[in-house]
Amino acid sequence: MYRTLRKLILFSLLLVTLFALFIYQSTVIPLQDTLLSSDTDGADVIQCVTYSSTVPLDRHGNLDIAIWNIYKQQNDGWQNVLKQLADRTDLLLLQEATLSDDLKSSVLELNEDWVLARAFIFAGEAVGVMNLSKGYPLSTCAFRYAEPLIYYPKSLLVSYYKLSDSSQLLVVNIHSINFTLGLQDYQAQLNVVAAAMMEHHGPIIFAGDLNTWSDERAEYVVTMVQKAGLIEAVPRDDYRTTVFSQSLDHIFYRGLELVNTESIVTDSSDHNPLKAYFRLLKKIP
Predict the structure, then answer these.
(1) Nearest to residue 274, comparing CAs of 283, 265, 282?
(2) How far apart are CA 71 and CA 53, in angstroms?
(3) Hey, how many other C-beta atoms are within 10 angstroms of the C-beta on 204?
(4) What is the 8-class DSSP label of residue 88?
(5) What is the pLDDT of residues 70-82, one digit of tens each?
(6) Could you tell me which residues are beta bridge partners of residue 257?
(7) Phi, psi of 93 (to 5 degrees)
(8) Which positions ≥6 away from 5 have C-beta within 8 Å?
(9) Closest of 174, 171, 188 to residue 230, by C-alpha
(10) CA distances from 173 to 10, 241, 273 (A)
(11) Can you give the pTM of this predicted structure?
(12) Cβ neighbours of residue 180 under 8 Å, at least 6 residues apart?
Protein backbone atom coordinates (compact mmCIF):
# COMPACT_ATOMS: atom_id res chain seq x y z
CA MET A 1 0.00 0.00 0.00
CA TYR A 2 2.77 2.42 0.96
CA ARG A 3 4.73 1.67 -2.22
CA THR A 4 1.64 2.20 -4.37
CA LEU A 5 0.91 5.52 -2.69
CA ARG A 6 4.52 6.63 -3.14
CA LYS A 7 4.37 5.75 -6.84
CA LEU A 8 1.15 7.75 -7.26
CA ILE A 9 2.71 10.77 -5.57
CA LEU A 10 5.85 10.56 -7.71
CA PHE A 11 3.77 10.14 -10.85
CA SER A 12 1.66 13.18 -9.92
CA LEU A 13 4.79 15.25 -9.30
CA LEU A 14 6.16 14.17 -12.67
CA LEU A 15 2.95 15.24 -14.41
CA VAL A 16 2.99 18.63 -12.67
CA THR A 17 6.65 19.13 -13.60
CA LEU A 18 6.04 18.23 -17.24
CA PHE A 19 3.02 20.55 -17.39
CA ALA A 20 5.00 23.42 -15.86
CA LEU A 21 7.82 22.78 -18.34
CA PHE A 22 5.32 22.86 -21.23
CA ILE A 23 3.88 26.16 -20.01
CA TYR A 24 7.35 27.65 -19.60
CA GLN A 25 8.56 26.54 -23.03
CA SER A 26 5.34 27.68 -24.74
CA THR A 27 5.44 31.18 -23.26
CA VAL A 28 7.29 34.21 -24.59
CA ILE A 29 7.42 37.40 -22.53
CA PRO A 30 8.28 40.28 -24.89
CA LEU A 31 10.61 43.01 -23.68
CA GLN A 32 8.36 45.87 -24.79
CA ASP A 33 4.83 46.90 -23.85
CA THR A 34 2.99 46.31 -27.11
CA LEU A 35 -0.37 47.41 -28.47
CA LEU A 36 -2.08 45.30 -31.12
CA SER A 37 -5.18 46.34 -33.06
CA SER A 38 -7.41 45.09 -35.84
CA ASP A 39 -5.85 47.51 -38.34
CA THR A 40 -2.22 46.54 -37.61
CA ASP A 41 -2.41 43.13 -35.88
CA GLY A 42 1.17 43.34 -34.69
CA ALA A 43 2.76 44.57 -37.90
CA ASP A 44 4.69 47.15 -35.88
CA VAL A 45 5.82 47.03 -32.27
CA ILE A 46 4.15 50.07 -30.72
CA GLN A 47 2.95 50.99 -27.25
CA CYS A 48 0.54 53.80 -28.17
CA VAL A 49 -1.54 54.72 -31.19
CA THR A 50 -3.67 57.73 -32.15
CA TYR A 51 -6.59 57.67 -34.60
CA SER A 52 -7.39 60.88 -36.45
CA SER A 53 -11.02 60.14 -37.28
CA THR A 54 -13.37 58.26 -34.99
CA VAL A 55 -17.10 58.01 -34.42
CA PRO A 56 -18.70 58.78 -31.04
CA LEU A 57 -18.71 55.80 -28.71
CA ASP A 58 -22.24 56.44 -27.40
CA ARG A 59 -25.59 56.20 -29.18
CA HIS A 60 -27.25 59.63 -28.90
CA GLY A 61 -26.30 59.91 -25.25
CA ASN A 62 -26.75 56.26 -24.28
CA LEU A 63 -23.61 54.32 -23.37
CA ASP A 64 -23.61 50.62 -22.45
CA ILE A 65 -20.37 49.08 -21.17
CA ALA A 66 -19.63 45.45 -20.30
CA ILE A 67 -16.59 43.68 -18.86
CA TRP A 68 -15.70 40.00 -18.98
CA ASN A 69 -12.67 37.91 -18.08
CA ILE A 70 -12.99 35.46 -20.96
CA TYR A 71 -10.62 32.88 -19.38
CA LYS A 72 -8.47 32.57 -22.52
CA GLN A 73 -11.52 31.12 -24.33
CA GLN A 74 -10.98 27.76 -22.61
CA ASN A 75 -14.64 26.98 -21.88
CA ASP A 76 -17.27 25.98 -24.40
CA GLY A 77 -19.84 28.55 -25.48
CA TRP A 78 -17.67 31.66 -25.20
CA GLN A 79 -18.49 32.65 -28.80
CA ASN A 80 -22.21 32.89 -28.02
CA VAL A 81 -21.65 34.93 -24.87
CA LEU A 82 -19.23 37.22 -26.70
CA LYS A 83 -21.77 37.82 -29.46
CA GLN A 84 -24.58 38.54 -27.01
CA LEU A 85 -22.42 41.02 -25.10
CA ALA A 86 -21.05 42.76 -28.20
CA ASP A 87 -24.45 43.01 -29.93
CA ARG A 88 -25.92 44.97 -27.03
CA THR A 89 -22.88 46.91 -25.83
CA ASP A 90 -21.09 50.04 -27.04
CA LEU A 91 -17.81 49.08 -25.39
CA LEU A 92 -16.83 45.57 -24.33
CA LEU A 93 -13.74 45.21 -22.13
CA LEU A 94 -12.19 41.73 -22.06
CA GLN A 95 -9.51 40.36 -19.78
CA GLU A 96 -7.47 37.19 -20.46
CA ALA A 97 -8.28 37.44 -24.16
CA THR A 98 -6.17 35.11 -26.30
CA LEU A 99 -5.74 36.47 -29.82
CA SER A 100 -6.49 33.18 -31.53
CA ASP A 101 -7.84 32.76 -35.04
CA ASP A 102 -11.22 31.82 -33.52
CA LEU A 103 -11.39 35.06 -31.53
CA LYS A 104 -10.32 37.21 -34.47
CA SER A 105 -12.88 35.48 -36.68
CA SER A 106 -15.65 36.00 -34.11
CA VAL A 107 -14.81 39.68 -33.72
CA LEU A 108 -14.69 40.14 -37.51
CA GLU A 109 -18.18 38.65 -37.83
CA LEU A 110 -19.39 41.12 -35.18
CA ASN A 111 -17.94 44.01 -37.23
CA GLU A 112 -16.10 45.28 -34.15
CA ASP A 113 -12.79 47.14 -34.02
CA TRP A 114 -10.40 46.01 -31.32
CA VAL A 115 -7.25 47.05 -29.50
CA LEU A 116 -5.27 44.69 -27.24
CA ALA A 117 -2.53 45.30 -24.67
CA ARG A 118 -0.30 42.24 -25.05
CA ALA A 119 0.79 40.80 -21.72
CA PHE A 120 2.68 37.79 -23.08
CA ILE A 121 2.59 35.24 -25.90
CA PHE A 122 1.47 31.68 -25.27
CA ALA A 123 1.76 29.01 -27.99
CA GLY A 124 2.29 31.75 -30.54
CA GLU A 125 -0.83 33.75 -29.57
CA ALA A 126 -0.92 37.09 -27.74
CA VAL A 127 -2.77 37.22 -24.41
CA GLY A 128 -3.97 40.40 -22.72
CA VAL A 129 -6.81 42.86 -22.18
CA MET A 130 -8.91 43.86 -25.20
CA ASN A 131 -11.36 46.68 -26.00
CA LEU A 132 -14.12 46.01 -28.55
CA SER A 133 -16.23 48.82 -30.05
CA LYS A 134 -17.77 50.15 -33.28
CA GLY A 135 -14.79 52.36 -34.01
CA TYR A 136 -11.37 53.07 -32.57
CA PRO A 137 -10.48 55.27 -29.59
CA LEU A 138 -8.97 58.70 -30.17
CA SER A 139 -5.81 57.35 -28.55
CA THR A 140 -4.79 54.31 -26.55
CA CYS A 141 -1.68 52.98 -24.79
CA ALA A 142 -0.69 49.55 -23.50
CA PHE A 143 1.04 48.98 -20.15
CA ARG A 144 2.22 45.87 -18.29
CA TYR A 145 3.30 44.92 -14.80
CA ALA A 146 4.93 41.56 -14.00
CA GLU A 147 3.59 39.24 -11.33
CA PRO A 148 6.30 39.38 -8.62
CA LEU A 149 6.28 35.64 -7.89
CA ILE A 150 5.73 34.02 -11.29
CA TYR A 151 6.95 36.94 -13.48
CA TYR A 152 4.08 36.62 -15.96
CA PRO A 153 2.88 40.16 -16.77
CA LYS A 154 -0.64 41.48 -16.50
CA SER A 155 -1.64 44.24 -18.90
CA LEU A 156 -3.89 47.28 -19.01
CA LEU A 157 -5.19 49.70 -21.64
CA VAL A 158 -5.55 53.45 -21.12
CA SER A 159 -7.81 54.79 -23.88
CA TYR A 160 -9.68 57.98 -24.76
CA TYR A 161 -12.96 57.81 -26.69
CA LYS A 162 -14.93 60.53 -28.43
CA LEU A 163 -18.45 61.16 -27.12
CA SER A 164 -21.33 62.83 -28.93
CA ASP A 165 -21.38 65.77 -26.48
CA SER A 166 -17.85 66.72 -27.61
CA SER A 167 -16.21 65.42 -24.43
CA GLN A 168 -13.65 62.63 -24.15
CA LEU A 169 -14.21 59.49 -22.10
CA LEU A 170 -11.15 58.03 -20.36
CA VAL A 171 -11.44 54.24 -20.26
CA VAL A 172 -9.07 52.03 -18.26
CA ASN A 173 -9.34 48.29 -18.90
CA ILE A 174 -7.19 46.39 -16.41
CA HIS A 175 -6.28 42.89 -15.32
CA SER A 176 -4.61 43.40 -11.96
CA ILE A 177 -1.71 41.32 -10.71
CA ASN A 178 -2.68 38.42 -8.52
CA PHE A 179 0.16 36.55 -6.79
CA THR A 180 1.50 38.99 -4.21
CA LEU A 181 1.63 38.86 -0.45
CA GLY A 182 1.70 42.59 0.28
CA LEU A 183 0.22 45.64 -1.40
CA GLN A 184 3.36 47.30 -2.77
CA ASP A 185 3.36 45.71 -6.23
CA TYR A 186 -0.43 45.86 -6.47
CA GLN A 187 -0.30 49.60 -5.79
CA ALA A 188 2.57 50.09 -8.23
CA GLN A 189 0.54 48.66 -11.11
CA LEU A 190 -2.35 50.98 -10.27
CA ASN A 191 -0.12 54.07 -10.19
CA VAL A 192 -0.49 54.42 -13.96
CA VAL A 193 -4.26 54.34 -13.56
CA ALA A 194 -4.30 56.85 -10.70
CA ALA A 195 -2.12 59.31 -12.64
CA ALA A 196 -4.30 59.10 -15.76
CA MET A 197 -7.51 59.62 -13.78
CA MET A 198 -6.17 62.60 -11.83
CA GLU A 199 -5.03 64.31 -15.05
CA HIS A 200 -8.32 63.79 -16.90
CA HIS A 201 -11.09 66.36 -16.44
CA GLY A 202 -13.89 64.56 -18.27
CA PRO A 203 -15.92 61.38 -17.69
CA ILE A 204 -14.13 58.16 -16.72
CA ILE A 205 -14.69 54.41 -16.81
CA PHE A 206 -12.24 52.33 -14.77
CA ALA A 207 -13.06 48.64 -15.02
CA GLY A 208 -11.82 45.08 -15.29
CA ASP A 209 -10.67 42.12 -13.23
CA LEU A 210 -9.06 43.91 -10.30
CA ASN A 211 -8.32 40.73 -8.33
CA THR A 212 -9.64 42.39 -5.18
CA TRP A 213 -9.63 39.14 -3.21
CA SER A 214 -8.60 40.72 0.11
CA ASP A 215 -9.94 43.52 2.30
CA GLU A 216 -6.63 45.38 1.89
CA ARG A 217 -6.82 45.33 -1.90
CA ALA A 218 -10.48 46.31 -1.98
CA GLU A 219 -9.90 49.16 0.47
CA TYR A 220 -6.96 50.48 -1.55
CA VAL A 221 -8.99 50.51 -4.77
CA VAL A 222 -11.88 52.30 -3.06
CA THR A 223 -9.51 54.93 -1.66
CA MET A 224 -7.90 55.45 -5.07
CA VAL A 225 -11.16 55.87 -6.99
CA GLN A 226 -12.66 58.14 -4.34
CA LYS A 227 -9.70 60.51 -4.71
CA ALA A 228 -10.50 60.74 -8.43
CA GLY A 229 -14.23 61.19 -7.79
CA LEU A 230 -15.38 57.79 -9.07
CA ILE A 231 -18.13 55.59 -7.66
CA GLU A 232 -18.90 51.94 -8.33
CA ALA A 233 -21.70 50.50 -10.45
CA VAL A 234 -22.95 47.58 -8.33
CA PRO A 235 -25.68 45.21 -9.59
CA ARG A 236 -28.72 44.69 -7.39
CA ASP A 237 -28.63 40.94 -8.04
CA ASP A 238 -24.92 40.38 -7.74
CA TYR A 239 -23.55 37.23 -9.38
CA ARG A 240 -20.00 38.44 -9.84
CA THR A 241 -17.22 35.92 -9.30
CA THR A 242 -15.86 36.06 -5.75
CA VAL A 243 -12.75 34.85 -3.94
CA PHE A 244 -12.72 34.91 -0.12
CA SER A 245 -16.19 36.56 -0.38
CA GLN A 246 -14.71 39.48 -2.34
CA SER A 247 -15.90 40.43 -5.84
CA LEU A 248 -13.08 40.47 -8.41
CA ASP A 249 -14.70 42.37 -11.30
CA HIS A 250 -15.63 46.04 -11.07
CA ILE A 251 -16.91 49.01 -13.05
CA PHE A 252 -16.18 52.45 -11.56
CA TYR A 253 -17.39 55.64 -13.23
CA ARG A 254 -17.36 59.43 -13.09
CA GLY A 255 -19.19 62.12 -15.05
CA LEU A 256 -21.94 59.79 -16.29
CA GLU A 257 -25.49 58.99 -15.16
CA LEU A 258 -25.88 55.36 -14.15
CA VAL A 259 -29.17 53.83 -15.32
CA ASN A 260 -28.73 50.18 -14.37
CA THR A 261 -26.14 47.50 -13.63
CA GLU A 262 -26.42 43.75 -14.09
CA SER A 263 -24.20 40.70 -13.66
CA ILE A 264 -24.76 37.84 -16.09
CA VAL A 265 -24.42 34.18 -15.15
CA THR A 266 -22.47 31.93 -17.55
CA ASP A 267 -20.39 28.77 -17.45
CA SER A 268 -18.36 29.89 -20.49
CA SER A 269 -15.66 31.34 -18.21
CA ASP A 270 -14.60 31.27 -14.59
CA HIS A 271 -15.88 34.87 -14.40
CA ASN A 272 -19.40 36.19 -14.94
CA PRO A 273 -19.77 39.28 -17.16
CA LEU A 274 -20.74 42.62 -15.63
CA LYS A 275 -22.65 45.29 -17.55
CA ALA A 276 -23.55 48.93 -16.80
CA TYR A 277 -25.95 51.21 -18.66
CA PHE A 278 -25.15 54.93 -18.68
CA ARG A 279 -26.40 58.24 -20.05
CA LEU A 280 -24.27 61.28 -20.79
CA LEU A 281 -24.66 64.22 -18.45
CA LYS A 282 -24.05 66.92 -21.02
CA LYS A 283 -26.72 68.03 -23.43
CA ILE A 284 -25.98 66.64 -26.88
CA PRO A 285 -25.57 69.36 -29.54
Answers:
(1) 265
(2) 33
(3) 24
(4) T
(5) 999 999 999 999 9
(6) 279
(7) -110, 115
(8) none
(9) 171
(10) 42, 18, 14
(11) 0.90
(12) 147, 148, 149, 186
